[in-house]
Amino acid sequence: MTHRSPALSPDAARAGAALVERAWRLLPDAPGVYRFRDPRRRVMYTGRATDLRSRVRSYAGPLRDRPHLRRIVAQIAEVEALECAGVHETAWLERNLLERSLSRFNRVRGGAEQPVWLVVGSGPESPGVSLLVERPASGQVFGPVLGSEKARAARSGLLRAYPLHLTGIAMSREQRSLAAARGVGPDDLARFASCVGDVLRGDPPALSLLEATLTSRRDRMSARLAYEAAAAITEELAAVRWVLAPQRVTGRGEHETTVHGTASGLLLRLTGHAGAIDEWRTTTVDRPRGERLAAASPPDLREWAATNAGLAARLVAAGITRSGRVPTPAIR
């Protein structure tokens, strides 16, 4: 037996679209996470955007060929948003929120991207860069990185510039042939391992050198009309930048993190568990208490919290969302 979705109310759809139309005008053209609440204040969808204003604005369009989005818009009663420092931080925050509580219209807990760790191996037998889904107890470990595909592309770029995997003493016949063609060997192991480690630690000169090396090779490939190889290097460059992009919402240690920002009588509270900021709520607050809580927040997150408290206050003042304590949804 086929189950049909209930018919959408034209009035509800128009009301949702009108709310979105008012909301996007107040949002920054910056990366961030947004979420929609239904009339019962339940979070029904959490999403991320490279440009919050543009992304949320898209829900106000006709949506004729996207019935699943029309169902969402017809139930929107509130719009909330958090501005982030960049797309990497945005992706992590969305993942953390969905890992903590899967919204009704989101399909996968935590999202589709798999966190991984990059491990630089410098042992003489089989040096290289490995991808692991769990952090190892020892070694040169970097991460976590969100997105195994991006991590693989970054590893490919690193090894293109610094072929650490071709410097071992137990290589296959194919690897020995490649090493000979590139003029590398065991004597290069320590140098390559150091260069890869410097890049993954975010050392600016090391990153600049890597980007210059890969850009030069990409341009040579383009000049030879090897466009597929040039496109692969372009993807590797983007992946390296993704891996090294700053983010403040994951990997904050094992203790609980509590962050507060306040603006216009509104208190924004972000809570992290096991090193990941994964809860987000607002409530009204008197000014002295709000300022005390904000001052007690981690120093590296105070400005971020204050910025987003101001955004939340603007949305409340415009009637886009409501103030007051928001209950934490049950984890399903």
How would you sum up this structure, described in words?
43% of the residues lie in helices and 19% in strands. The strands form three sheets. A three-stranded antiparallel beta sheet has the order 2-1-3. Strands 5-4-6 form a three-stranded antiparallel beta sheet. Strands 7-8-9 form a three-stranded antiparallel beta sheet. The chain folds into three domains: 1-85, 3-Layer(aba) Sandwich (GIY-YIG endonuclease), CATH 3.40.1440; 115-244, no CATH class; 248-332, no CATH class. With 332 residues, it is of the alpha+beta class. A hairpin with a 2-residue loop joins β8 (266-273) and β9 (276-284). Mean pLDDT is 90; it is low at 1-6 and 326-332. It has eleven helices and nine strands. α7 packs across α8.
- Kindly report the average pLDDT value: 90
Counted up, domains total 3
Sheet with the most strands, sense and barrel status: 3 strands, antiparallel
Number of strands: 9
Kindly report how far apart the N and C termini lie. 26 Å
Kindly provide the radius of gyration, computed on alpha-carbon positions and rounded to a whole number of angstroms: 24 Å
Strand order of the largest sheet: 2-1-3
Percent helix, as a range, is: 40-55%
- Mass-distribution shape: elongated
Strand content: 15-25%
Structural class: alpha+beta
Low-confidence stretches: 1-6, 326-332
- SSE order in H/E notation? HEEHHEHEEEHHHHHEEEHH
The number of distinct helices, counting runs of at least 4 residues, comes to 11
